[in-house]
Amino acid sequence: MDLIEYEKLIQSEEAARSYLLGFCWKEGRRFCPRCGQHPVYVLSDRRLRCGGCRYTFHDFTARWLNLGGLSCRDWLRLVKLFELELTALKMCGQLRLAYNTIYKAVTAVRFALLAQAIDAPQLLSGPYGERLGFAKGRLRMERASGEQEVIPVFGLMDKGGWIFADFLPHIEAADVIHFHRNFQLPLERMGQLVYTDRYQRYDALIFCGDAHLPYGLIQKSSRKPYVDSLKGGFWNFARPRLKRFNGVTSRRFPLYLKELEFRYNHKSEDIFPILVRHLCSLVPKSE
Fold first, then answer.
1. pLDDT tens-place string over residues 7-16
2. Cα(117)–Cα(107) distance, rounded to whole angstroms?
3. Which of 194, 163, 195, 168 lies closest to 263 in space, CA to CA?
4. Is the model's pTM score more than 0.85?
5. Can you give 105-155 as a three-state secondary structure string?
6. 196 and 108: one domain?
7. pLDDT tens digit string along 38-60?
8. Per-residue pLDDT reduced to its tens digit, 199-243
9. Residue 264 counted as domain residue
10. Number of structural domains, the chain?
11. How far apart are CA 45 and CA 147, in angstroms?
């Protein structure tokens, strides 16, 4: 999207809202987000009611952008800054919103990107979803007491200019360290982030651990992991960005990894409308 078109969209709340609604309702046809049925009636206060299940809702109900609490103009401004890879802290000065408000909205954008991935149903449900802070269609920004220590491991596969960051539920962080100690799988550590040499069909395994992991068991290898030997590709794209995220936590790491997967796979495209489309999509239902 060129700058002139973008400036027109954020001139007024009505223009921004109209743009967002275009992504929410295909051809302007509203449906019930609870039962998926038509018709839907507009009430006097602009809310909507399903003619089938009688559920009352509004245009953004059950969509990712409904989780951030921003105006339509501020959502589009935030998406533009997110497109430009500004941190939440740097967004504060331009949006003039509280840091916590911006951080929650940016987290909603990242969840919206993760939700499009093939492995999203596994990552957003059960103990993995709980640890990410997603349950029953809601975001939980704070960490719950007694939360299960489940550290997801991903396999990176860079093929033909596309990256696949596959969630591997059958492998745990402790398994990766076991492969290193007992089968000489080279590991590298970057803070709490750990990545490996080639493993089976993957260019690397990667995870972000926490204080409970035995990092002292990681031994320096004379052989560099495969991804460090490459001059181009995903890892060279992702590594400096991971450092710039300023202390990505083990809990939120899958969100950042899926964001980088998205950015790399769309690096030659205008991602602004794609980001908006994902943000306007329905939040998946999870148990």
1. 999 999 999 9
2. 16
3. 163
4. yes
5. HHHHHHHHHHCCCCCHHHHCCHHHHHHHCEECCEECCCCCCCCCCCCCCEE
6. no
7. 899 999 999 999 999 999 999 99
8. 999 999 999 988 788 888 888 777 889 999 998 899 999 999 988
9. no
10. 2
11. 41
194 close to 173: Cβ distance less than 8 angstroms? yes
Spatial separation of the C-alpha atoms in residues 287 and 282, rounded to whole Å: 16
Q: Which residues of 10-30 are buried (b: 16+ CB within 10 A; e: fewer)?
A: beeeeebbebbeebbeeeeeb
Residue 270: which of 102, 124, 83 has the closest Cα? 83
Which pair of tokens denotes residue 3? 């700058």
Q: Which domain, by its residues, includes 65?
A: 3-127+274-279
Q: Do residues 82 and 189 both lie within one domain? A: no
**What's the mean pLDDT in 258-274?**
97
Residues 118 and 160 in one domain: no
The mean pLDDT value of the chain amounts to 91
Residue 147: per-residue pLDDT:
55
